[in-house]
Specification:
The structure holds two protein chains of two kinds. Chain A is mostly helical. Chain A folds into two domains: 127 residues, no CATH class; 110 residues, no CATH class. Chain A contains eleven helices and no strands. In chain A, helix 4 runs parallel beside helix 7. The longest helix of chain A has 38 residues. Chain A is elongated. Chain A starts with 24 loop residues before the first helix and ends with a helix. By secondary structure, chain B is an alpha/beta fold. Chain B has a domain of 191 residues: 3-Layer(aba) Sandwich (Rossmann fold). Chain B has 13 helices and twelve strands. Chain B has an eight-stranded mixed beta sheet with strand order 6-7-8-3-9-10-12-11, sandwiched between helices. Chain B has a four-stranded antiparallel beta sheet with strand order 2-1-4-5. Classes of the chains: A mainly alpha, B alpha/beta.
Chain lengths: 287, 329
């Protein structure tokens, strides 16, 4: 009996394991746009043709042309350079407004989803409380209390935004904890923390990552809106919302001061959304 | 006789439901000896799987496990969760019916074996990697070294069950709880997996509790068999002896319900009726409503599981009458 080694009569697969499917074109376009803005954020000095803060009184509100592709503003500053330097702030907003909520929300969501009980009930009430108010109203209220400025925007967005990640993760973990492999983990004698964070979470992260991409786009929009309202980045700092706000008084004489920063917001937001969609497709294919 | 590894005494498992407490395992006495394969058979809902889960104390509160679970002489029932975790996976392993869902779809198979090694052994990084390949090899995965990084969906059903076994074996458990490990597989793969379990028992000296509702599987692979009905043990004994001369009316019914492959177009002989809902039996034999042999004596009290010689135990008042009736039927 012991000599008969039962092995499967299947030839070992020799062909390449991972067959890379061509990513959807939405993903490619989104990735290119996002990469462009990331590059601008990392090395604005390399891309920007002019110093974004240098006044040039000989070239006030010059329209788009060969010397200044996007024109100049009312102080003669190059709009393109200002937009490029502003990406640094806006990408920072996208990351700082999403990563802390993502981390906090994932941790809280997985714990309440796994353990349920009284913690879950309390969490449910907090969710109800937060989603009763429109997101932006709540954020503006908190920023109004803390005072304007980017750091306070981050605090405000984090204190509200984690709820959405937590809700997402909670529902996923609640389903996953019923899965056989969760029981299997328990049977192997793994600790609850190990089961939650190493075995369940990787299964829940797909939805979180897709939401995160979209959330970044929304937070850029939010950061720009707050900048426009004077609650976010403060005027000497170049930020897209601030640029739009600066330009709005000259809409009839120098449209390029508003249109190009506005376009930057739209393009960057679209890029991130496309990337998010593409990532969702890729992850769906892998399943 | 080999020493008992695991002794269950009066094991009782109660689950809390919306309609009150349900006793799904109702006073089970069982012993598992070092290196033996014990079959646990019975209809769906007879408490086979719940017995396994109770041994590892996997019953979520407010469900409760009471009685005694003596593992190498140490009672597991009062143990705290961290102490229990050191036994789960390390001393007692478990495999499941559906290898498809019991493996984590987003972690590679090798990774899942590594996890167990990390949790239960103090092997170093390279030693763990080597052991992982070794384990996959041991359970008969061809080209193990290349397949460690594969994900469960790249494995076939039989290979997944092998991988599952490899994970459970990672820390050399002395007892493997196998919850219908072959039910989801087709017969040829089923045969391979059973042979694998037999071989592992030989080479690793590991005891196995094999839950199944397939009497053919029991006949092929078990040393002893315990028949369960309505959360109670009806009969235990050597497989050949039990199958040759059942001493509990339920066992007889089960054996008679197996179609005989040598005869064509025979009528199926099912046991009429259905098992009683948990917690409705009371202090009498649970099988009475479906039993051809039932008399007033069965109503008096719950028949105790008593020794009837040859290492066999049965909980039937009419054990003797069965033998005469058996082949007359």
């Amino acid at each position: 009996m012991s000599s008969t080694v039962p092995t499967l009569s299947v030839a070992p697969a020799t062909e390449p394991r991972r067959v890379w499917k061509r990513p959807p074109s939405a993903f490619i376009l989104g990735a290119i746009i996002t990469a462009g803005f990331l590059l601008a954020a990392i090395a604005p000095g390399l891309l920007a043709p002019y110093d974004p803060l240098a006044f040039d009184y000989d070239n006030l509100q010059v329209g788009p042309g060969a010397a200044h592709w996007f024109g100049t503003d009312n102080f003669g500053r190059d709009v393109l350079s200002r937009i490029i330097w502003a990406s640094r702030i806006d990408i920072q907003i996208a990351l700082f407004c999403t990563i802390p909520p993502l981390l906090i929300g994932t941790a809280v969501g997985s714990l309440v989803g796994y353990y349920g009980g009284i913690a879950d009930t309390i969490f449910g009430r907090i969710v109800d409380l937060v989603i009763t108010f429109p997101f932006i109203v709540l954020v503006i209220a908190i920023v109004a209390v803390l005072g304007p400025g980017l750091v306070n925007v981050y605090i405000a967005v984090t204190s509200v935004g984690w709820v959405f990640y937590a809700r997402l993760v909670r529902s996923q973990v609640m389903v996953l904890r019923q899965a056989d492999f969760a029981a299997a983990g328990q049977v192997m004698g793994y600790s609850a923390a190990r089961i939650i964070f190493r075995h369940l979470l990787p299964n829940a992260m797909t939805a979180v990552i897709v939401y995160w991409m979209t959330d970044m786009a929304l937070d850029i929009l939010l950061g720009s809106s707050l900048g426009y309202l004077g609650l976010g980045a403060q005027p000497p700092t170049a930020e897209w919302g601030v640029l739009v706000s600066d330009g709005k008084n000259f809409m009839d004489t120098a449209w390029w001061m508003t249109v190009f920063p506005g376009a930057a917001i739209v393009v960057c937001g679209t890029g991130l959304s496309l990337l998010g969609d593409g990532v969702a497709d890729l992850l769906a294919v892998r399943r | 006789m080999r020493a008992p590894l695991l002794l269950l005494r009066g094991l009782q498992t109660t689950l809390a439901t919306d309609n009150g407490a349900l006793t799904v395992v109702d006073g089970v006495d069982l012993d598992v000896r070092e290196g033996e394969i014990l079959g646990l058979v019975g209809e769906s809902g007879s408490g086979k799987s719940m017995t396994l889960r109770s041994i590892l104390r996997l019953i979520r509160p407010p469900g409760r496990v009471s009685g005694e679970i003596l593992w190498r002489g140490r009672d597991l029932v009062p143990l705290r969760e961290p102490e229990m975790r050191a036994i789960r996976g390390r001393e007692i392993g478990m495999i499941f019916q559906e290898p498809m869902t019991a493996l984590n779809p987003v972690l590679s198979v090798g990774r899942q074996i590594l996890e167990n090694l990390r949790a239960h052994t103090d092997l170093g990084r390279t030693a763990r990697r080597n052991r992982t390949v070794e384990l996959l090899d041991l359970v008969g995965i061809p080209a193990a070294a290349q397949r460690v990084n594969d994900y469960p969906h790249q494995f076939s059903g039989g290979m997944r069950q092998r991988a599952m076994i490899a994970i459970a074996l990672a820390s050399n458990p002395s007892l493997l709880l196998a919850d219908e490990p072959t039910t989801a597989l087709d017969v040829t793969i089923q045969d391979q997996i059973l042979k694998l379990l037999l071989r592992l028992r030989e080479t690793l000296g590991m005891a196995v509790i094999l839950v199944t509702h397939d009497l053919g599987v029991v006949a092929q692979s078990c040393d002893r068999v315990a028949v369960m009905y309505a959360g109670r043990v009806a009969e235990i004994g050597e497989v050949s002896a039990v199958f040759a001369a059942p001493r509990h009316a339920y066992t007889l019914g089960l054996l008679q319900s197996v179609p005989d492959a040598r005869r064509i177009r025979q009528a199926l002989r099912p046991i009429g009726g259905a098992p009683p809902p948990p917690g409705t039996v009371g202090d009498r034999c649970a099988f009475i409503p479906r039993c051809d042999f039932a008399t007033a004596a069965c109503e008096v009290r719950r028949p105790p599981l008593i020794s009837i010689g040859g290492g066999r135990l049965a909980a039937c008042v009419h054990g003797d009458r069965l033998q005469q009736a058996e082949w007359a039927a």
